[in-house]
Amino acid sequence: MNVGVVGAGIVGLAVAREVARSCEATVTVLDKEDHVGAHQTGHNSGVVHAGIYYQPGSLKARLCREGVALLRQYCAEHRIPYDEVGKLVVASTAAERPGLRAIAERARANGVPGIAELDALGLREVEPHTVGVAAVHSPHTAIADFPAVARRLAQDVTETGGSVLLSHPVRALRETASGVEVLAGRRRLAFDRLIVCAGLGTDTVARMAGAVGDVRIVPFRGEYYALAGASKDLVRGLIYPVPDPRYPFLGVHLTRRIDGEVLVGPNAVMALALEGYSWSDIDLTDLRRILAWKGTRRLAAKHWRTGVREVLGSMAKGSFLAAARRYVPELTRADLVRTTGGVRAQAVAGDGSMLDDFAIDVHGRVVLVRNAPSPAATSSLAIARHIVGLTSVLTR
Fold first, then answer.
1. I need a labelling partner for 123 at 20 to 30 A (CA). Which of 283, 298, 367, 373 fits?
2. pTM value?
C-alpha cells in the first residue's frame, strides 16, 4: 500500500511512522515548508500534558493519557530531553476553588497519577515564590523538546523506506476509483490513501478534496514574554491559572522550558492570516475566508468583550505582567522580555462554538484531521495509532 501524509508537523510525522510500522506501507510525507515542525510543533511551550483538563471519555482524555506513556518511552529510547517538572494549577481567590476542585476530579477520572490538592502552604512547598489560596499539583506533567521529536520521527520514516518531501506544497488533489492523485510542488503523486494532518492548512486541503465539512479553522495567535536573568529562578516548573470553562485556552501561565527559559503566556487573539505570527502578518485572502465563515461571526458576537480584552492585552506588556504577578508577585516589568509566539489552528463550528475535542473525519480515501490543538503534541503517537485504526477500516 502507498500512503501519503500531508503535514510534517509532529502529528503528521507520527502518523507516517505508525503507518509504515503497522501497515507495512510505503509512506510519503508532503509539506510546503523547508523543515519539519515549522508551525504548531515548533511554536509551542513544550509542555507534555498529563490529562488533567479533558472531559473523561473524550478522545483528548484517552489519547492524551496513552500519548504521554508512548512519548515518554520514545524520548527515552532516542535520548530526547524529557523532564517531569510538575504543574500547579493555582486558585488565586476563594471563588476559583470550585473550578479547581472540578479539575482534580477530572484528573482522577482520567487516571492521572499523583494528583494532590494543596492548601496555600502546600503550594509554596512546590513553588516557593508562588501565592494562592489552593492548588492542584500534577507532579508528572513534563516538558520535552517537540521539534527534536519531530526530527527523529522524520528520520524513522526515511529509515523505513519512506520519504519526507519538504518544500512540496499540495496544489491540487483528486480522488479516483483506485486512490488519490496529488499535485505537490511540480510532482504528480499517486496514493492508495491520503491522510491530512495540515494544521493551519487543513481547510485548504479539505476544499481540494471536496470535503469542506461543517467546521473551519480559525487561527488564534498566542503571544509570549520570557523571564530575563535571575527571575527565571522564581519558577521551578509549570504554574497555571484555573481555566475559564467557556474556552479551550488555558490562560496566561508560567512555563519552564526544556532549554531553561521560562515563558509567560500565551494570550489568544484572532490572527489576521492563517500563519499570522504578528500583527503585521496580514493575508487578505485568508482573512476574507475566516470572516466569511458564519461560525467566526457567531463566535465574535458571543465573545466580543473577551476578544477586545485580548487585543488590548496583546498590545500592553502590563497585562502579561499583571497575569504573572497574580501568582508570582516578585516579578517586575523589567523581568519580562517579548519573545516569539505561535498560532493555534482552532476548529470553529457553524454555531460559533470552538471544538474542544480532537476531530478526525474519513472522506472516501482521505482521512482529515479537522481539529488537533493542544494536547496534540503530547498525544501525537496515540493519535497516530488511532488514525491507523481508522485507515485499516478503509482497507478491508
1. 373
2. 0.95
